[in-house]
Amino acid sequence: MNSQSDTKTITMAHGSGGKAMHDLISDIFLASFDNELLSPLEDQAQIDLTQLIAIGNRLAFTTDSYVVDPLFFNGGDIGTLAINGTVNDLAVSGAKPLYLTCAMIIEEGFLVADLRRIVKSMKSAAEAAGVQIVTGDTKVVERGAADKIFINTAGVGVIPAHLKIGANQAKPGDKVIINGLVGDHGAAIIGARKDLAIETDIESDCQPLNDLIAALLTVCPDVHCLRDATRGGIATVLNEFAQASNVCIKIDETAIPVRSEVRGICEILGLDPLYLANEGKLLAIVPAERAEAALATMLAHPTGSQSAIIGEVVESPEEVVVLRTSFGGERVIDMLVGDQLPRIC
Question: Which residue in 96, 34, 89 sits closest to 65, CA to CA?
């Protein structure tokens, strides 16, 4: 007899806690995520603290939920977003990401084949980032009570004792570096939403940044600020830095790497690429004397091959981001007001 997980769609029985749920967990989740911490299937993962202490003196702990629409898009899916997004939120603190959780809320009627595809993506992304999924949860809700599938991931990492990275650490004279083209994820989602009637081959930049960050910190351990630019784009992150550090950040429009196709989409829809979401881009603020070494290291890494110095930190006006335009003028870049594109991640 076939198990419940062999059915074509998710049923309420898959969230009941009984045999159908056990079969689903064993056949799909455990088969993909299996490791020594997960396989006992306890209600918690039990982690040896001595392994953590050997890496650093602070625990980094984060959580995020993913509701992207559509679930599958050029360059990734909700599964790759869930893994890479949480890995990157840990890595920008300087932490070494180690362990993730995975909780899924699945709508009744969701295709089992799509669930397998998502879990396979999560497995591949976790392996690429060098992390383990060690515990999780599955809930099934009635048809119409959710939109296909929502995923929550939490992550744990360890920060080495010598690192002090924070949004409030930017200092006048520092340089601003980005690791590549901005806005690709937002453009990929726009292309995947057929109702917008825009066709594009642009792939999402969804990728783990922990290896790039580790390389950066090797040559520049005194990175002052570091953050991945997701919802709200690079404009939002730069404003967060400027406000937390009480400084002004000036960026050059001509130095910011943007794909011409992304600029075209923004012109058609009245969007600004500085506010478009990314899922594989970071902004680093580093001391001026370290900037060239940091840039060279990032350029040599596969996830930083199009890195660029795009601006600098100055004293005033405080808590402001200023864009030097390609026409030679200047304009203030505010925080994003409203939402350019909902359910982007």
Answer: 89
The domain tally of the chain equals 2
For residues 119 and 117, give the distance between their C-alpha atoms in angstroms, rounded to a whole number: 6
Same domain, 201 and 138: no
Can you count the helices (H) and strands (E) in the chain?
Answer: 10, 13
152 and 13 in one domain? yes
> Whole-model pTM?
0.95
Contact, 259 vs 184, CB < 8 A?
A: yes
User: What is the C-alpha to C-alpha distance for residues 10 and 71, in angstroms, rounded to an integer?
Assistant: 16
For the CA atoms of 151, 156, 160, 164, the dihedral, rounded to the nearest 10 degrees, stands at 50
Secondary structure of residue 88 in the 3-state scheme: helix
Torsions phi, psi for 12 (to 5 deg): -60, -25
pLDDT in tens, 249-286: 999 999 999 999 999 999 999 999 999 999 999 999 99
Element (H, E) at 141: strand 132-141
In a domain, 170, yes or no: no
Helix, coil or strand: residue 158: strand
CA distance 291 to 162: 19
Contact of 308 with 182, CB cutoff 8 Å: no
124: pLDDT strictly greater than 60: yes
Give Rg (Cα) of the chain: 21
Q: Find the CATH number of the domain harbouring 83.
A: 3.30.1330.10
Place of tokens 């918690």: 44
293 within a domain of the structure (yes/no): yes
Please choose, from the candidates 157, 102, 88, 90, the residue with its C-alpha nearest in 3D space to the C-alpha of residue 133: 102
